[in-house]
Structures are given as structure tokens and as C-alpha cells.
Amino acid sequence: MTVRDGLCADRVSRTLGGRLVLDGVSLAPSAGATVGLLGPNGSGKSTLLRLLAGVLAPTAGVVTLDGDLLDDVGRRAVARRIAVVEQHTDTQVPLTVLDVVRLGRIPHRKTWLPASAEDDEAVRDALEHAGLTDKVDRRWQTLSGGERQRVQIARALAQRPRELLLDEPTNHLDIQHQFDLLNLLVGLPVTTVVALHDLNLAAMYCDQLVVLDQGRVVAGGSPEDVLTEELIERVYGVRAVVTREPEGHPHVRFVRAAAPSRPGATVQ
Amino acid sequence: MSVEALTRRSRLPLVLLGGFAALAVSIAVAITIGPANIRVGDVWASVAARLGFGESGLSTIRDGIVWNLRLPRTLLAAVCGAGLAVCGAIMQSLLRNPLADPFVLGVSSGASTGAVLVVVLGVGGGVLSLSAGAFLGALVSFAFVLLLSHTLGGTTDRVVLSGVAVMQLFSALTSFIVLTSADAETTRGVLFWLLGSLSNAGWAEVGTCLAVLVATLLVCGGYARSLDAFAFGEDAAATLGVAVARTRLILLCATALLTAVLVSSAGAIGFVGLVLPHAARALAGPNHARLLPVTALAGAVFLVWVDTLARTVLDPQEVPVGVVTALIGVPAFVLILYRARGAR
């Protein structure tokens, strides 16, 4: 096997509580791309992200960073390369936006020493990227769901990662905030792997899509190649009509399932 | 952008300087208060003489009261206050539980069982002192909590639940031994110790407790940033490069060891470890590099004054210091929570 740059999962499997949650999944996002992870609930998206982050170890297969096993790279070094935004985060600690974003510098800072100029610069850049410069003194507890996601993304950016992993970051956001957040993500100069529920958002914003079903990769490639009527019916069990938008990406329109017909009843 | 917020430099050295000054003044005043009627100037002159400045104008007995009773007792109060408060702050952050305190790992109840075994049942055959018994009991119960929480999965909620279970077990054991075997006099002595008391303070206790306190502060200070990272939970801490399992084990062991040493010298002084961290957070904010030293100083000043109150308010009778910490601590606790309510 040749040494691959960046973050790479090679035939990873994982059992949780005796159940095989991931079954031989490989993923090798190209540098700078935005990769969308799709699949129904329980298909293994979150578990795959946790393996990629090194929070969970695979039961089989390997996750590598520039060809080195995550375990060999070391926790702190991994945290300087890979940042993670979880699906739902909360804290009891009365932190300000600035406090939270500064957490992103922890893997870079030395014990006992105060924050360096580089730390401050990374925090300032992250706040600017996420459009939070006027909210630095706001308390975490007073923020809306969309603002909290933004703050977590700013914290992740303060880590100055080259890989960014996000688990359904648009959950519970209204449609405008979903667009804002994805616009922010695709504009970032990092390799992004993002688990998404909404097929059309994925089609609009991702360079590549990977579809998981019951722990296996059932499709992968460009949105046009992946999002077909046949695949949607097979994976999600719903009928859909897929058309091509003028911008080039596919658009998915779900078709309401027909009511089950009663035998013997005829419609005139 | 409020660039000021970013470039705002820490006023920590100033805060610490103020804290140390407040502590020094508190100690200096506290040692002048007591049943033996010694003039303020004489007290200070006596201490100064011991430190090699000038001469003490006091008789040997009165000099002894200042140097061998009041000063070590006040210093032990400061050390215990600092240690219990810091342990509480670390436990609350590590376990993400605002109700955690140094005794959440069952250390205090284990210590009391150990002490009661020595005092009431004569375990150790006179070789084992009461504080050594308490220390061993604390270690046994903590080992029990670690083992139990590890068996149950090792997550923080399991640690808390195991601590509560072990605490109940050892408390029941202590009550059982006291009720079935002790006479009234011993029961009274044991009770006094269970509630916490600084009346047995000597220089040896001060030395041991201070040494362990300093060592623990140095170890935990190195983990200040890891503790910050726990704000959003263990997975979030892991993605920030914190070795979660190792950090948790080291911090649990360090705080349990310090608590065990403090409890075996001064009994289970309650409420300091629960309340003071919350008060210090209101003062110093959530960052542990600031929070831990401020908590230590606040706890030290607090317990110096509470102990002074405990030994003078019903003079010549002494109130267990743990009773006074609770009597003062509960309203203070309510006030802090009430004032923090708006910030949520």
C-alpha cells in the first residue's frame, strides 16, 4: 500500500455492544475537498467520524494520517491536525464565546506558559472566519443553536486543523442557518468530512458523497453519480425523482408513497 | 471586534498578591484571638522572636500557647481550607458535576471507619495512631471506589455513583461499630472528629499537610488546561488532545491522597470543598490556571476565620468547625446560586 497524504480510513470495522456498526469502510478524502457522509440513522456515520477522530479505535482496519497510524501520531499531535465538531455539545461551565474558542489552542499550548502571539492570532482568525467577532463576550448559555454551532466551528478552526470532521452540524438549525453554516464550511481551506441528513444540501455543497448503509459503503463519488433514484429507494426505502439543477448538481424530490391499496376495491 | 478582549492580559499576579496578603493578615489577626488573654503586640513579638527577630516578652507557657497551639492550628486551618477547596474545584470540573466535593470519592467516610476501628475496636494494637488509621481507611475506600467504577465502565457518572455507594457503605459501618461497641465518651470523641476539628493541630500535622498540598497543587496545576478541556465532556477533551483516562486517574488519585491526608489530621470538614469552588468561580472565572490558585487562597482565608469563630463563639466550649462551615456555608451557597441565576 502506498503512503497516502492526509486522513485515511482503510477497511475499518467496529463493533459496539456486540453489534457490527461499521463493516470494512474505506475513506480517503482528497485534500481540501468537502466530503458528505450520507445514510439513514444508525448507518454508522457517527461511528466512522469517531474512528477518523481517533476517539474510538477500530476493531479491524486502520486509520492513518499521512501514512502513520493515528495511535502512533499521538493524541496532542492528532488534535493539532484534526478538529472535530460534535452533533450536540453543552456545558454547565459559564464560558464566554472567547473562552470556548480558546479551548482550540489547548493542543498547541505548553504547560505553565501563557498564550503566545500565535495563539491569539489563531483565535482572532477563527472568530473572524466564523463571523463571531462581535460576540466574543457572550455567554455560551445565552447562544442559540446556530450560534453554538458557529462557536464550536470557530473553536475547531482555532486548532488550525488540516482536517475538519463534523457530525450533522445542521441539525436543529433553521434553513437560513443551515445555508450560512455550509457556506462557511465549504469556504474553509481544510479537508472537511461532514455527516449530513439532507440530501439536497449535500448535493449542493459537497464535492464528494459517501453513502453508508448498515455499516457498509454502498455508494461513493460525485453527487451526480451517487444520488440516483435507484440508490435512494434502496437505502432509504422511499421513492424520489432526481432532476438536474441549472448549476449542475442533482436535486432530489421525494414522492409521497401511495396509500396501500385494498384488495377488491376498485376505483372508477 | 473587541480586540481588547483578546489582548486583555491576565491580572492573575495582582489577584494572587491580594489573596496572599489577605491570608497573611487573616492569620496574623486570628492568632491574637483566644481564651488566654495575651496582648496583640505580645503575640506578634513572640512569633517574631521564634522567627529570629527580637525577643518575646511572654512567659514560657504563654509563648507556648502562641507558638505551639494558636499558630499551628491557624496554619492547619489555612492548609485544610486551601486543600479541600482545590480538591472540590478539581472534582467538580473533572466529574462535570457541580455537587461534587472532595468527599464524593468516599474518602471521608473511609477515613472515619478507619479511625473508629482504631479508637473503638483497638485495631492496630496501639501501634496505629488515630490519624494513621484514618489515612489507611481513606485509601481503602478510595481503592474500592476506583475498582467499582472501573468495573462499571469507568465513565465519570460511574465514578460519582460508585463514590456515593461506597460512602454509604462506610458510613453505615462506622455507625454500626460506634453504636454496638463504643461508650458514651468515645462516641462523643468520634463524633467530634467526624464533624471535623482542628483542635489536635501540631507542627507535625501542619508540615505533612502543607507538603502534600504543595505537591498536589504542582501536579494539578500542570493539568489546568486539560481541566478546561473537560468543559464539553470527555470526548471533546479527547479531540483536544487530552489523554482522558490518564488525566482522570492522576487527578482522582492526587485529590484523593490530599483529602485523605487532610481528613486524617482534621476530620471531615464539610462544605468547604463544595461551596468555595463556586465562590471562587464567581471571582476568577472558569479558567483553571486562574481558578485553582484563587480557590486555594479563598479556601484558606475562609477556614482560618471559620475556625476562629468555632473556637471562640461558645468559649470555653468549642464548636466542631464542620458545624460552623455548614452553618455559614449553606446561606452563602444559596446566595451564590441566587446571584448566578441571572447569568445563566
From TrEMBL, chain A:
InterPro entries referenced in this protein's UniProt entry, alphabetically? AAA+_ATPase, ABC_transporter-like_ATP-bd, ABC_transporter-like_CS, P-loop_NTPase
Q: Where are the transmembrane segments?
A: none
Question: Locate the ABC transporter domain: which residues?
Answer: 7-239
* Keywords of the record: ATP-binding, Nucleotide-binding, Transport
Q: Which PANTHER family match?
A: ABC TRANSPORTER ATP-BINDING PROTEIN, HEMIN IMPORT ATP-BINDING PROTEIN HMUV
GO function term, MF aspect, one: ATP hydrolysis activity
Mind telling me which Gene3D superfamilies this protein's record contains? P-loop containing nucleotide triphosphate hydrolases (3.40.50.300)
Recorded source organism is Prauserella flavalba
| Protein's name according to its UniProt entry | Histidinol phosphatase
Q: Which CDD domains does the protein's record reference?
A: ABC_Iron-Siderophores_B12_Hemin
Which superkingdom?
Bacteria
Automatic annotation (TrEMBL), chain B:
- Can you say where in the cell this protein is located? Cell membrane
> Pfam families from the xrefs?
FecCD
The domain of life for this entry's organism is: Bacteria
Q: Which terms does the UniProt entry file under GO BP?
A: siderophore-iron import into cell
Name the GO cellular-component terms.
plasma membrane
Q: Describe its membrane topology.
A: Multi-pass membrane protein
Q: Does the keyword Chaperone apply?
A: no
Q: Which UniProt keywords apply?
A: Cell membrane, Membrane, Transmembrane, Transmembrane helix, Transport
Q: Which Gene3D superfamilies match?
A: ABC transporter involved in vitamin B12 uptake, BtuC
Return the InterPro entries for the record: ABC_BtuC-like (IPR037294), ABC_transptr_permease_BtuC (IPR000522)
Return the SUPFAM superfamilies for the record.
ABC transporter involved in vitamin B12 uptake, BtuC
From the record, give the transmembrane residue ranges: 12-34, 75-95, 116-147, 159-179, 191-224, 249-276, 288-307, 319-338
Q: What terms describe the molecular function in GO for this protein?
A: transmembrane transporter activity
Instruction: Tell me which family the UniProt entry assigns to this protein.
Output: Belongs to the binding-protein-dependent transport system permease family. FecCD subfamily.
Q: Which PANTHER family match?
A: FERRIC ENTEROBACTIN TRANSPORT SYSTEM PERMEASE PROTEIN, PERMEASE OF ABC TRANSPORTER-RELATED
Q: What is this protein called?
A: Iron ABC transporter permease
